Amino acid sequence: MAFFFAQFLTGLANAAALFLVASGLSLIFGVTRIVNFAHGSFYMLGAFVGVTLMEVLPGAVGFWGAIILTGLAVGAIGAFVEMVVLRPIYRAPELFQLVATFGVILVIQDLALMIWGAEDRLGPRAPGLRGVWRIFGEPVPKYDIILIAITPFILFALWYLITRTRVGVLVRAATQDREMVGALGVNQAWLFTGVFALGSALAGWGGALQLPKGGADLLMDFNIIGAVFVVVVIGGMGSLPGAFIAAVLISVLSVFGVTYLPQSTLVLMFVVMAIVLIVRPYGLLGREEVAGEHGQAGAPETPIRPYGRVGKMLVAGLLALLATLPLFAEQFVLTLTVDMIVFALFAASLHFILGTGGLVSFGHAAFFGGGAYAAALLVFHTDTRMELAFLFAPFAAGLLALGIGWFCIRLTGVYFAMLTLAFSQLVWSLAFQWRDVTRGDDGLVNIWPADWLNSPSAYYYFTLALGVGGILFLRHVIHAPFGYALRAGRDSPRQAEATGIDVKRIQYAAFALAGAMAGLAGGIFVFSKGSVFPTELEIGASFDALIVVFLGGVKTLAGGVVGAGFMTLVEDWLTRLEYWRLLLGLLIIAVVIIAPEGIVGSLRSLCTQIRGSESEVSK
Amino acid sequence: MLNVNDIHSYYGKAHILGGLSFDVPRGEVVALLGRNGAGKSTTMKSVMQLVRPRQGSVSFQGQELIGKPAFRVAKAGLGYVPEDRRIFTDLTVLENLEVGRQPPRDGAPEWTMEQLFEIFPNLAERRTNRGKHLSGGEQQMLTIGRTLMGNPLLLLLDEPSEGIAPVIVEEMAETILKLKSEGLTVMISEQNLHFARAVADRAIIIEGGEKKFDGSFTELEAHPEIRDAYLSV
What ipTM goes with this model? Predict the structure, then answer.
């Protein structure tokens, strides 16, 4: 019993940092409606800045002073990010903001690498709180008790700020209708910056406070973001008490998980989340999001048109080039092109659900990696023939999408996005932790194609046929009645329902189809590389696809394909440089701000502009 | 006080206001009349800069407003009451009023919450209720009260009589007259000619984003063909 209680206390102490980060994320989302993916980066910055300051400032005063200063510093960084990156894009669709914050992650990763180096830092112990206190005979670190004591005060302070002060009233009003708050004479730009700074500061404090229990390393940003999303989703977006309860729940469960189910610590929290969401789709203390509130409206979608003569010729030319490529190209070009086609199909499947379906999925890598793993597992464990295993990839990914979709499709907007991300993390943690089956991060190797495909040009044609076929198939679906129904559901769910379309069912089917096509890409991928590792399931992989779709242009069918080609080439070139993340991040941010329609979209607007001015002249 | 000169406003490519000009002198109550879709709300929003006119000028006490963010327009002394009320439904009555609160302004009547509760006694009883639990009429009072908390010089009221009970409409008319007697300049947009005549000194009629009539109600009565052509009576 005493041991049990001590475990519980450890869980409570771990909850402190998690709550701080989650509350910051929740706060920022509540007002700006931006899901700040860079929030984990602010947490990481907090840890590094904290370590540095603690090395300089002596004693207990120095330790606590360093923590307070860290929050202020990270808050200032957050304010800077908000002003430079986010301010220009508040009116842009969710995806743009998301991609922009992802650019911020990349930039911060490389800046941290430049400043603090690649080595992990161990956090200093808190002066005067080094030992343990005995509670019912069990040793409990003194610092843990301090953390447990501090957290409720932070919760109370935040609660007081939000519910009892003028700033809090304005913040809550802006959450609901920011334009009206502006029309009443409040400079909402500063309100947003302030909230973003406070949210970032909370993440920074979280990073600094956990130092004596952990340390600072360059993987902290991605490592915490999954847990933070789980906490925010379980607690309910925008609810501070919800974030607190969920942080405690998750932390306590993980502590017991480590003791009793050491193999499943990562999976556990996603299972809890799934259970909570079955019972309460909007989290413990969250409320249903009302669609169509004031303040957020993108430009209306232009109708999809068939390609003109030039477009058709371009596509035909490209296909002819691809078909004859093995006749003259070197092998590495073929390999690169296979990568490109795989990525293009993956991106096209994401574009299908995201652009056409209007469902922003943050976890699409689950299906790509899931398909790859499904085929690889069959080959690895049962020596299945390659052809059969390959067919299993899209099939398994489609089934996985049906399973995940069952939970996710009920939700919309940010909840949908978060939940898909959390489920992809669940799949990732399975691949990572279920070592008996998946061999963890050693990956599955020696997954080669059948003999008749086992030459670079044979596999190239195999890829070309299936990849291009898959993309054309998706294009066909978009232009079929099913695609029209899907777009109707995206643009006006209620009206679509009223005309007799079962929007949720259509979306569910589309989600499964997108999953299956991503699985197909994964299947091609695994046999081209001969191996698969959990990295294919990481958040980063999902984000690569999102960025590609975004770079190409969300509103155009060719967007994903063009973006994938562009991205493969850019990455191939950039990754040769030491600080390629920094450059890629800056590139992404620049595209978001300067050319938010993506490559294809921007080209198209340019064309219409030229045509428009010509026709005006002719008038 | 407010001089609007040849403004052109668009929603996307749709040309909503095609060169609208009018003045609102200090101390007057001016009614902007027209059918649904005539451009009344767009006119209000164009003054507030919630819709940006692409051309023309909106000047308030000699200060050009076009291009300014909405909060600067509000700080210049314009109070805007939107047609769809847009109260903060999760906030209490007191909190809604707090959002609108601004420091006192020279030359404008100064409002406190208690004074507002005298004008709108219904709200006084419901001060700790959330916005979403108010009736339509109460919400309309709250949205006016919220804007008055900003101590505006000029009040823009977009269709205050829409969707509320006839008894409340009468109260609303009295309230507007009371505001006028406090020295407030008011511009209301209306479809209800009867209501407009009861509160306003002057009528401006628009149709298709263009001005069709500008004059007193006596003049308007002398030209029933204008009323028949542009107002649905």
Answer: 0.93
* Residue B206 · residue B43 · CB < 8 Å: yes
Options 1.10.730.10, 3.40.50.2300, 3.40.50.300, 1.20.1260.10; CATH for B27-46+77-230 is 3.40.50.300
Extents of the domains making up chain B = 27-46+77-230
Same domain for A42 and A158, yes or no, is yes
Q: How confident is the model at residue A297 (pLDDT cuts 50, 70, 90)?
A: very low
As a whole number of angstroms, the distance between CA B101 and CA B81 comes to: 14
- Lowest-pLDDT range, A210-214, A524-528, A611-615? A611-615
- For strands A132-135 and A138-141, give the pairing: antiparallel
Band (pLDDT 50/70/90 cuts) for residue A616 is very low
Place of tokens 């379906």: A357
Q: Same domain for A214 and A314? A: no
Domain that holds residue A510: 309-608
Question: Could you tell me if A386 and A499 lie in one domain?
Answer: yes
- Distance separating alpha carbons of residues B169 and B189, to the nearest angstrom: 14
Please report, as a single letter, which amino acid is at residue A181. V
Contact B70 A294 (CB under 8 A): no
Domain total in chain A? 2
Least CB–CB distance from A173: residue in B80, B99, B150: B99
Boundary of a domain, candidates A263, A279, A295? A279
Residues of B whose CB is below 8 A from A181: 99
Partners of B74 on chain A (C-beta within 8 Å) are 182-185
A184 touching B (Cβ < 8 Å): yes
Inter-residue contact B7 to B19 (CB < 8 Å):
yes
Which residues of chain B are within 8 Å of residue A173 when distances are taken between CB atoms? 88, 91, 95-96, 99
